[in-house]
Amino acid sequence: xxxxxxxxxxxxxxxxxxxxxxxxxxxxxxxxxxxxxxxxxxxxxxxxxxxxxxxxxxxxxxxxxxxxxxxxxxxxxxxxxxxxxxxxxxxxxxxxxxxxxxxxxxxxxxxxxxxxxxxxxxxxxxxxxxxxxxxxxxxxxxxxxxxxxxxxxxxxxxxxxxx
Amino acid sequence: xxxxxxxxxxxxxxxxxxxxxxxxxxxxxxxxxxxxxxxxxxxxxxxxxxxxxxxxxxxxxxxxxxxxxxxxxxxxxxxxxxxxxxxxxxxxxxxxxxxxxxxxxxxxxxxxxxxxxxxxxxxxxxxxxxxxxxxxxxxxxxxxxxxxxxxxxxxxxxxxxxxxxxxxxxxxxxxxxxxxxxxxxxxxxxxxxxxxxxxxxxxxxxxxxxxxxxxxxxxxxxxxxxxxxxxxxxxxxxxxxxxxxxxxxxxxxxxxxxxxxxxxxxxxxxxxxxxxxxxxxxxxxxxxxxxxxxxxxxxxxxxxxxxxxxxxxxxxxxxxxxxxxxxxxxxxxxxxxxxxxxxxxxxxxxxxxxxxxxxxxxxxxxxxxxxxxx
Lengths: 163, 374
Fold this sequence. Notes:
The complex is a heterodimer. Chain A is about 15% helix and about 25% strand. Chain A is α+β, with helices and mostly antiparallel strands. Chain B is of the alpha/beta class. Chain B is built from 9 helices and 19 strands. In chain B, helix 4 packs parallel to helix 5. The interface between A and B is large, with 44 and 40 residues.
């Protein structure tokens, strides 16, 4: 249970996802923000208005999956690091999860890493496809992790090899 | 003895916001006393992005908020900012005494805003005085201000926001966090903070307490044990974790010594972290010359502290300045912002606490028998 372990329940996660059809259409953001807290920067970060305006600052964010282009601007703007972008059809074989990442040093593009699920368990291997770390991200890097596409619903973190 | 319009004690988020707002509204003769040799209070240790409203710094890191305030303050040269000035006492004749550069000074302000913040609570367990046991604030000071890690393997006690955030910062610094334990049945801090460290593989153990610290000269381990729903130890569940550091994040309590000296009516309000001055909606205490803002008024977070600092400043300006029209509107919008911030489920305990300290004659009478001034 989320409030006992920090791991969101499968039902909660499922409700936060877009439809399978939408996933296949192209990159899309998912918000793993399950408890009401006073916080609204995501709304202001979305330049296409896909996030519903907050009536009460404590509301949970609501994303219009149809409008979302998966640009990922919201990822580094979430103080809770709770937004990910899923790209089911990144290539013929692979999907990509874009993950907010605040550890240094940053991984190298092309690096093989261990893919972790929401409880920090290793669930497979992934490849660092891209590292975004522009000034506007204010030190929250975004790591594009490529993996077998079925895993993009599971993987939310990664572990680098011990050096 | 110098006189002034407004003295602000504490240069954290509440005090800084109060000083800037008071000057912006037209008060010229302002003293800001800060005990440390730097401004910003706890903000200077907060490397994470803040929550709250986009219009009030949400999405900005605490360390950067401190810089924004310092820049704003630097432009207002009339404000007398005294770093390294320790308020020593508030006397019966409303004189504030402080030490500064090895001398003692007296100041008689027309109004004082107390923004003295909070101190950390301690936890009683065997060997809790061993070197290697820190409060979360000390760990943040070491790591985030001075770049020193407190140890290699750490146990975090307390899963409120501070425990979760500091555990995350320890991970960022390369320290191994063995576990975050929490005596209650649920994580007190924001779920997103918990999920962030959980997906890094850190177990968060609710219904767990620390039994004792192990070690002779320094911490060599920690014994933790499960608690049942009646807070009783569950037999056979004790186990030892090999750690060299134990970090306590078990809550804060408001620093109210000056308020007590100023004769402010006090009340014990668990929801606000302990003894706090009774105050009205403008943050004026029962001593009409003294206002309270930020964590010293009740434990909350920095966004609320900033808004409270501004609210106190607006009301001090109303007391002192003659032209009030603009101030009334500003007072209203600031209160509305605070209300919106506290509206949700996480603001519930604060709302409950605040209801107990609205100025009324009986607040706190069960605990304090002395007669009140003002």
